[in-house]
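Fold this complex.
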Amino acid sequence: MQFGIFSVGDVTTDPTTGRTPDDTERVRSMLTIAKHADEAGLDVFATGEHHNPPFVPSSPTTMLGYLAGVTKNITLSTSTTLITTNDPVRLAEEYAMLQVIADGRMDLMMGRGNTGPVYPWFGQDIRQGIPLAIENYALLRRLWTEDVVDWSGKFRTPLQGFTSTPRPLDGVPPFVWHGSIRSPEIAEQAAYYGDGFFHNAIFWPMEHTAQMVNFYRQRFEHYGHGSADQAIVGLGGQVFMDRDSQRAVDRFRPYFDVAPVYGHGPSLEDFAAQTPLTVGSPQQVIDRYGAFYQQVGHYQRQLFLMDHAGLPLKTVLEQIDLLAEEVVPVLRREAEAVRPAHVPAAPPSHAERVAAARTAGEVHEQSVAAADHWTGRTAEDDVEAADAVTR
Amino acid sequence: MSERSIVVISSGLSQPSSTRLLADRLADATVAELAARGITANVRTVELRDLAHEVVNAMLTGFAAGDLAAAVEAVKGADGVIAVTPIFSASYAGLFKSFVDILEPDALAGVPVLLGATGGSARHSLAIDYALRPLFGYLRADVQPTAVFAATDDWATAGGDQSHPLPARIRRAGRELAETVADREPAAPTGLYDAVPSFTDLLGG
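Structure:
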């Protein structure tokens, strides 16, 4: 099982000091956090994508491309990549480029985005969110799996003889997750393609998360990708730890009470009881997160929100250390002990996907560009065309 | 003997509350009229005052928790709803509207709803027609023709509306709601996943 962190990239005033980082500092903090997570031995770092303040990560592949160069083992991912307002052609190009640069040590998660004005800023309409997610992703997949694409649809200009470059690493596209909190259509989409499904459970009661995940599992089986318990599931989580559990509560409360999203609302105690938020000792986190599989089945990826609500960088790095040293090794061992052999331990790695594609005869040992994809013609065709003009 | 569920929403703030009093009377009238048609009514009363903090929390967090979640579920599965609010500053109470805002957009679609309101004087009685009816029209509820407004005077034996006294209006409203509810099949419990189109339909659409 994989354990990692995901970042929203919010710029939030530290309520205990009144200090607010600027955008530059926040971006650099995210880089430091990702590098630290890699060094600490976590499995995944995922960045959000936002196009409005107070969020800084507008350009995930720039950030992840840099991180691919300065990290060693961690899988780089997104939480989420906006499949609605981004051009699917640009997504195909950018994430194939990232895949090559990271040598396959990446995947990505599709999401719709829930900020109304972002849609019109990018020429779209939030009421078309689901149709956009479906059409754009269908095109994105074709751009990764077919060398030359002719396409027309409702939301973007048609393509004739288009080839997205670079071609995916080893001819096999990145693994894709679909993230959704309350839209069963997206769970259906993930199931249809046999992709992963991620539920960002952090603001929701676990019963709701379990319903959604189990719906995805049933549909995954329905579409013939394996049994329901073999579907690839990820969950969001949120913790704040201190070896002294009361001290964890005392330290986190000032941030909780005024945090974006849930601040000025329910008490920390109520919210922690109702959602996966766990504030306490590493053992309390182990006890709670180690039991979620009983509600959602054995799952493959658990991401934690750590850098948010104005928590200072020093605290975030210390939280990552606690997570990596005291929590993850135990959770990993416990998950492995109860996992049935036929259930995947983790989402498929690039090497596993390449091996599977070769077994299925979908890719050859080496893919060669046989034609001039720029014109969709061969050199011989060009000679004829040139002759025709000069004759 | 068949059964129907009736959910009563009362958003009076004082205790005891004349809004709750009106809500109970409307519920009693509906239950009696249903019984006369051979139907047992299961009445559940949602007193919004008790849920006020949870209503605000739900607006901030995006999900209903605890007793509020149970109330929202009850409304969603109701065969009929009786919604009663005091009129504050010329419209429904803020707490009443906040609760309605938490409901899923389709939660009351097609559901028979009896409206009631209370106020200090009969001068506010049209608030039902210019504020409550449009709200429930937007929700595509099946709002019953008779709605009941009770001013302070209406609770007196003398005073109030002499030609259409409050008890008579309550009986008529209860009869209308009971007739509508009795004419329909009991509401089937609906889940989030009952009507998800298959992906091939989504791709084609």
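Chain A has a mean pLDDT of 93.
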